[in-house]
TrEMBL record, chains A, B:
GO molecular function, one term: molybdenum ion binding
Record InterPro entries: MoCF_Sase_C (IPR005302), MOSC_domain (IPR052716), Pyrv_Knase-like_insert_dom_sf (IPR011037)
Protein name in the entry: Molybdenum cofactor sulfurase
Superkingdom of source: Bacteria
Species of the source: Paenibacillus bovis
Gene3D superfamilies: PK beta-barrel domain-like
Signal peptide as annotated in the record: none
UniProt domain MOSC: residue ranges: 32-188
PROSITE patterns given in the database record: MOSC
């Protein structure tokens, strides 16, 4: 779609693109695997570990009793190529793969994805829309996963400080559709 | 519930309370009427004009083609006693009633409700939780309604500038429950 001048689009010197799309569809694991495209529904990505209109409150939602059914605003997690590279450099590793973080999208071309404010919209070429629900605060699970994959003891404890403010965002679905590897993304920060 | 020190609660010199709860259940009208309490479900307030998991994109959501089905993030609208008083004073009127604005809640005791950031949580005594989706930008409909109720020609054109940044917020439901007149509200701004 053409950019409407009355809307606040994020300007970027380069295109913001979808580097990879991934799904967490292995029972018992948060690790994702890359696909050419993923469908998104109001409840998230069908077959994905985080699919659902509702989810149980966990340690992240301290304002609710653990296990309380709440609206699922952590349907889709997004990391950026640039921030994953920064995390890797800070951990003295050659790379951090989106699969290890359980990310559903890795995007490229946006400075500081993790600082994108809650309420920002991500718009894809077929009209699919996601709502940024805020920063995905680093937790121990991917830290341990990276350590076990790389077989390097001590890597886990370096993940949390290295990933702080760089671990990407979580999103929910505003408009259903398809997201494809190579898609160009428009980001809107005006409230809607 | 007791306040967890690891969470960012909004501090207020006075309690933040629910002054009135209201529903828009008259066919063809956005005007609300006060009730002692309202149930809230994942899709909003049953019987209310804005109830639904999905809604059609309208003039506010310019990034989508008009009529596109999108997630309903405008389920519940909230105004504050203090901001309604300010709007009334700026319009030289004795009062602005929440009914005229189609508000579902009027709250009291919070400075500048309209500036509450998207992603803030409002928590009610029985555990009900709402998510702030951002400012409710003033539109012409309540302006015309106020003019016709007060039978004062010219009032409509004074509403939009007077209500800017004072017209309250829209919310969606995170945790289902009941909201009652007189409830005390806790507001959390940390991301969750």
């Amino acid at each position: 779609m053409s950019q409407n001048p009355s809307i606040s689009w994020i300007e970027s010197t380069q295109s913001i693109t979808v580097e990879s799309v991934l799904v967490a569809d292995t029972k018992g694991s948060f690790v994702t695997r890359a696909l050419p495209e993923i469908p998104v529904e109001l409840a998230g990505i069908p077959g994905d570990r985080h699919y659902g209109l509702l989810r149980r409150a966990d340690a992240r939602q301290k304002i609710y009793k653990r296990g309380t059914m709440i609206a699922n605003r952590r349907q889709i997690s997004i990391v950026s190529y640039e921030e994953c590279l920064e995390i890797a450099q800070r951990m003295n590793l050659p790379e951090i793969r989106p699969e290890w973080l359980g990310a559903n999208l890795m995007i490229r071309g946006l400075e500081q994805l993790t600082l994108l404010p809650a309420g920002a919209r991500l718009l894809f070429p077929d009209g699919t829309g996601l709502i940024c629900e805020g920063e995905n605060v680093p937790c121990r699970k991917p830290a341990k996963m990276i350590e076990s994959i790389l077989e390097q003891p001590g890597v886990a404890s370096r993940f949390m400080p290295a990933a702080k403010k760089r671990r990407g965002i979580v999103c929910s679905v505003e408009r259903e559709g398809m997201i494809r590897q190579g898609d160009t993304i428009q980001i809107i920060t005006a409230h809607l």
